[in-house]
Every structure is written in C-alpha cells, then in structure tokens.
C-alpha cells in the first residue's frame, strides 16, 4: 500500500492527513491520497504563477516538443498507469477500459502538440496593419471527475501547457491516485511548477473557483457542480470552460436494421458501464421494430463479461462508487414500480464490490426518473414511439444538450433529423465517438465552451489585437 503525496513546484510534498482509496471491485485498500489544506493549494498556485513567468515566454517549438515528450513518457508508463487506474476506478484493463484510456491520453497529447494558433493578419493596407495574437491566460485550475480521470486530465492539461499556461489540477476524491502518478511522470519532462497536483475533498475545488491566483477554470463534472463553479468564479471574473452532464437521446427510425445496429447501440450506452458523459442514456425506438431492437440488445448483453478489472477476460467492471451505485439501484427500482419491464439485469447481486448487471428497461416512458435524469450507470431505458416528430420533440425536451444520435438505413434522412437535435454533437448510426480534431462540448445546461481541435485550444488563450 502506497501513501501518495502532492506534487508542487516539481517536488513531492507530504501532507499531515490522508484519505483511503478503495478498489470498487473488492473494497480493498489501493493506497492513501494526500488531503491538501488551503495552504497547500496556495503553495501550488504560487508555484504555477512563478513557473508561468518563464513557461509563457518559451517558444512555440519548445512547447510543442514538451507536449510530445509528455506523450512519450505516458507511453513508457502506460502499463503502470493502466493498472493503477483499474485498481482505483474499477474499469477493466481490457475492452474500452484502462489500456484504451491510456491509448486515448497519448493520442490526444500528440495530436494537440501539433495544433497551431498562428498570428492572423486582419487588415494590411495603407490605413493600418492589424494582427490578432493569441496569448496564454495564466494559471489554469483543472477540476476533473472520476469516470475517465486520466483522459480528462490530459484534455485539460495538454492544451493549457501547449499554449503557454501553467496548471494546478485537482482530481476527483474518488480517483486521485492515477492523476498524481501521471503528474509525477509529466514532471520528469517539464520544468518545475508547470503542472502541479493537489488532492482532497470537494471544498478544495470550491476554493480553486474563487482563488485570486487562478485565471481560468476548466471543469468537467456534473451540472449541479458546474453551476457552483461558474457562480464562484464570477468574483474574480475567471474564464471558464464547463464540460457538464448529459442525458443523450438516440432515435431509431423505422427503416433501421435491428441486428445491424445492436452492437453500436449497446456500446454507445454501456461504454465504461454507462459512466460516460456522452453515453446514450435514453433510447427512442419506433413501434414497428421496438421488440426486434430490444431482443437484439439482449443478445449483445449476453456476451459481455463483467467482473474484476484485473481479470483479462472482463470488459466491464463495477460502478465506481457507492453514491453512483445507490443512484442506479434507486432509478431502476423506481422504473419497475412505474411499470417498466426489465429485459435483462435489474437486480443488484450483493457481495463485494459495486457490481450491477447490464440492465435493459423496456416500456420506459418520459416522466420516469430513469428517463428524465442522467443515470450514469449500466441501465438503459428504451422508449416506444410512433411519430418521428414526437420522438424528436421528446428527445429535445431536456435541459441537457451534450450529444444525440439517429439510427437509420438512410443516412441522409438520418442526418437531416440529427441536425435538429439540440446538442453539441450529433451522431449518425453511432453514439459517443469523439476525436481530438473535432470540437466537443455541450449546449443548454451541458456546458460552456468546447474542448479539442483548434477551437478547444483557443479556449486557453486571450486575444490581443495589435494595430499599427
Ligand atoms: P462532480 O460534479 O460531483 O465532481 C466533479 C469534480 O468537481 C470533482 O473533482 C469534485 O471534487 C469537484 N467538486 C465538487 N464540488 C465542487 C465545488 N463546489 N467546486 C468546485 N469543484 C467541486 O461530478 P462527478 O460525479 O465526479 O462526475 C460525473 C459527472 O461528470 C456526470 O454528470 C458526467 O456527465 C459529467 N461529465 C461530463 C463530461 C463532459 O465532457 N461533458 C465528461 C465526463 C463527465
């Protein structure tokens, strides 16, 4: 059992207090995470501010090279990080689990390293020469959730560092260890103070949002916490990027082939046990193929091994924590009471670990809590519809607007419907696919701003216009 330490100004820093991190598959102790005090946070911010003075002045080529060096260091330590991630997060090594997450973290790092924000000439004539320059903002405070801890940390850290900012990251108290270790690895190739990590309870995150030494917050987490972050960032007028929750709808049109789409629907919903912001969380299926789609999904579910993530045969693990487990149990029980029909799963097995079976819920209806709320777990409500316009209206009748999808044998018909979904990303015959070259973000309550691509990189800069 290892006791982890904060990493501030390039040095490991011991804390007086720690908290236990337990394996969600077994309940066994994985390690102890340091409990940062407000004074530790102040030290981390001060280290980042000092480092900003020189890091912001490094050349574009040097910062690009540093990001590639991080990508290579992550590759060298990928096995170690994947194992630690599995132990504390629960996701399996295999499938779309820890190794997949480490692969994504490296791919995003190298892709983002290559992005450029060149000076733009806005006007060049006898009257004036006007240029638009992009400058780093300063110290970026990164607050991350527990579902994809390393990938999301990379989504925050790499564009910040690439554009000349410095970072203080605070991971979720459920999954802090892998982030601490990843930041230690990043520090082997970065100057001290460019990336710092503090861990501790939620109120460290709240302090970051009000901290006068932090210039921008990039936050990924729930809508409820995102609202608090935005409110408390107002006092110091911090820039914010908020990547928040979703309740993504998928609409299956009557011409779709149930067997052909079942696998895509299934993994769109159950990637990482449904604990994914842009997972498919409500499925609207036309009455004419409703039973066939339900049956095809049950067939896929039969062949998906779930269990301890260290066992190579498993591709799904437990729910990550008790709070989320209790929520999924409650939402499924409420759906049963309201008349929904369980096609598979639906009963908690008990025993060690927060295991909950893949659960497919037929005859689900709008107004049931499992349809109206983000379940963030391995339970998918399937809702019957007869009129496509009605299904679209129901899909859009949500404060959430992260992703959505349309499934059909006719891609052009699907595309025109997908464009009417009120969401940041609309997929056709797939769900949840994200790439480092395609900006990703939510509309409505699902967020403010985007990540990835040039547009995502711009969020880590301020504009300075130079007239002469
Ligand atoms: P959460 O909001 O509970 O916590 C997220 C982070 O915020 C944690 O580090 C937590 O310690 C911190 N925090 C808690 N209270 C805070 C406060 N008052 N001020 C500042 N920080 C505070 O979310 P979670 O349960 O860890 O993550 C699951 C949620 O994240 C889901 O809703 C999911 O959809 C969403 N999510 C969104 C995206 C996206 O890109 N849109 C990606 C992943 C997850």
Average pLDDT, to the nearest integer? Answer: 98
Cα distance spanning the termini? 62 Å
Work out the strand percent.
15-25%
CATH class of the largest domain: Alpha Beta
Largest sheet: 7 strands, mixed
**SS elements, strand count:** 21
Radius of gyration: 23 Å
List ligands, each type once. nicotinamide-adenine-dinucleotide
Could you name the CATH topology of the largest domain? Aldehyde Dehydrogenase, Chain A, domain 1
User: Major sheet: order of its strands?
Assistant: 15-16-17-14-13-18-19
Number of helices: 15
Name the CATH architecture of the largest domain: 3-Layer(aba) Sandwich
Number of domains: 2
- Give the name of the CATH superfamily of the largest domain: Aldehyde Dehydrogenase, Chain A, domain 1
Q: How would you sum up this structure, described in words?
A:
The protein has about 475 residues and is an alpha/beta fold. It has 2 domains: about 1-245 and about 445-465, Aldehyde Dehydrogenase, Chain A, domain 1 (3-Layer(aba) Sandwich), CATH 3.40.605.10; about 250-430, Aldehyde Dehydrogenase, Chain A, domain 2. It is about 40% helix and about 20% strand. It has 15 helices and 21 strands. It has helices at about 40-55, 60-75, 80-90, 100-115, 150-160, 175-185, 200-210, 225-235, 260-270, 290-300, 320-335, 370, 390-395, 410-420, 455-460; strands at about 1-5, 5-10, 10-15, 20, 30-35, 120-125, 130-135, 140-145, 165-170, 195, 215-220, 240-245, 250, 280-285, 340-345, 360-365, 380-385, 405, 425-430, 445-450, 460-465. The strands form 5 sheets. A 7-stranded mixed beta sheet has the order 15-16-17-14-13-18-19, sandwiched between helices. α12 (about 370) links the parallel β16 and β17 (about 380-385). α3 runs antiparallel to α6 (about 175-185), α4 packs parallel to α5 and α9 packs across α10. The protein is globular. The relative contact order is 0.14. Nicotinamide-adenine-dinucleotide binds next to α7 and α8.
């Amino acid at each position: 059992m290892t006791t982890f330490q904060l990493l501030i100004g390039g040095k490991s820093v011991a804390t007086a207090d720690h908290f236990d991190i337990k394996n969600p598959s077994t309940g066994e102790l994985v390690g102890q995470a340091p409990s940062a005090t407000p004074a530790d946070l102040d030290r981390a911010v001060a280290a980042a501010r000092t480092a900003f003075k020189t890091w912001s002045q490094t050349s574009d080529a040097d910062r690009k090279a540093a990001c590639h060096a991080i990508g290579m260091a992550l590759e060298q330590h990928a096995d170690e990080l994947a194992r630690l991630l599995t132990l504390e997060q629960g996701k399996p090594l295999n499938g779309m689990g820890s190794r997949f997450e480490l692969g994504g973290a490296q791919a995003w790092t190298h892709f983002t390293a290559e992005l450029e924000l060149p000076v733009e000439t806005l006007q060049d004539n006898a009257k004036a020469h006007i240029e638009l320059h992009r400058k780093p903002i300063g110290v970026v405070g990164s607050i991350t959730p527990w579902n994809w801890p390393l990938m999301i940390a990379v989504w925050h850290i790499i564009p910040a560092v690439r554009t000349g900012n410095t970072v203080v990251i605070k991971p979720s108290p459920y999954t802090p260890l892998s982030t601490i270790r990843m930041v230690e690895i990043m520090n082997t190739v970065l100057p001290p103070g460019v990336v710092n990590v503090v861990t501790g309870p939620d109120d460290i995150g709240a302090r970051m949002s009000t901290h006068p030494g932090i210039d921008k917050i990039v936050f990924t987490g729930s809508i409820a916490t995102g609202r608090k972050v935005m409110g408390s960032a107002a006092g110091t007028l911090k820039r914010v990027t908020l990547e928040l929750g979703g309740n993504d709808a998928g609409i299956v049109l009557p011409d779709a082939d149930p067997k052909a789409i079942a696998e895509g629907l299934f993994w769109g919903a159950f990637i990482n046990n449904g604990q994914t912001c842009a997972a498919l969380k409500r499925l609207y299926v036309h009455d004419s193929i409703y039973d066939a789609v339900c049956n095809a999904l049950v067939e896929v579910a039969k062949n998906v091994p779930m269990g301890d993530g260290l066992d190579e045969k498993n591709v799904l693990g437990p729910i990550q924590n008790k709070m989320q487990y209790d929520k999924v149990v409650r939402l499924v029980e409420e759906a049963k009471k309201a008349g929904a029909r369980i096609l598979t799963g639906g009963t908690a097995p008990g025993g060690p670990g927060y295991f909950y079976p893949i659960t497919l819920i037929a005859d689900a209806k709008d107004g049931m809590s499992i349809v109206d709320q983000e379940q963030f777990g391995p339970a998918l409500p399937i809702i019957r519809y007869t009129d496509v316009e009605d299904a679209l209206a129901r899909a859009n009748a949500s404060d959430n607007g992260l992703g959505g999808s349309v499934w059909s044998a006719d891609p052009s018909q699907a595309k025109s419907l997908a464009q009417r979904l009120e969401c940041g990303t609309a997929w056709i015959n797939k769900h949840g696919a994200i790439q480092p070259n395609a900006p990703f973000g939510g509309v409505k309550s699902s967020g403010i701003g985007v990540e990835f691509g040039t547009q995502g990189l711009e969020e880590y800069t301020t504009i300075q216009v130079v007239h002469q």
